[in-house]
Design a protein that fits this description.
Number of helices: 9
Helix content: 55-70%
Shape: elongated
Strand content: under 5%
Number of strands: 0
Largest sheet: none
Oligomer: single chain
Order of helices and strands: HHHHHHHHH
Radius of gyration: 19 Å
Length: 192
């Protein structure tokens, strides 16, 4: 068994750092957030932050997710259609909220900051895909969805249009749109 290096994180210091990084992100945007400002607001040393996070991007993403995850619960209604509809609606609502708009700023900054791009992929997008995957897998297990369903393509089919509207066209994303999108997708992936 491999032993962990260093002391475990102090939970209160960790919460303070995450809250500070999120508050600074919301107040000023990613570009102006610095590890110095996070440390000052959290009342910890920069060394404490760097002991737990490799760079500014990682701590800012963790702060963002610390605040955001409560708004994206994983549904379990017993119905694949209802679970995916709730999940996709929650994702769309969050992404179009004041806090969610931050992710579009982070995506833009990620074009120039490889560390940030990897942080939002690893800490935000991959977990959302894993959530969607688990919901679709449950639907397959319950025989609600096709047994040979290509889960990755199905995720792209359902969630891709939301991000396309958000990041490319700017078209409206509301509950009605998401419901129509999910219902149409399910026409092709439900078992017959």
């Amino acid at each position: 068994m491999e032993s962990k290096r260093g002391r475990p994180r102090n939970v209160e210091a960790q919460k303070s750092i995450l809250s500070a990084s999120y508050a600074l992100l919301v107040e000023h945007g990613f570009e102006t957030v610095t590890v110095d400002k996070i440390a000052e607001r959290a009342q910890v040393s920069k060394a404490t932050i760097y002991k737990w996070w490799p760079n500014k991007a990682a701590v800012v993403m963790d702060g963002f997710l610390y605040a955001a995850n409560a708004r994206l619960p994983l549904p379990d209604t017993g119905s694949a259609l209802n679970d995916i509809l709730m999940h996709a609606t929650n994702v769309a609502r969050f992404m179009t909220s004041r806090e969610g708009i931050i992710i579009t700023e982070l995506l833009g900054q990620g074009q120039f900051d490889a560390g940030l791009a990897e942080a939002y992929r690893a800490r935000y997008f991959r977990p959302r895909r894993l959530e969607a995957r688990s919901l679709l897998e449950k639907g397959i297990e319950r025989k609600e969805l096709k047994q040979d369903l290509d889960i990755e393509i199905s995720i792209d089919l359902i969630y891709g249009p939301i991000f396309y509207r958000l990041l490319v066209t700017g078209d409206k994303i509301d509950d009605s749109y998401v419901q129509h999108l999910v219902n149409r997708a399910f026409e092709g992936i439900q078992s017959t």
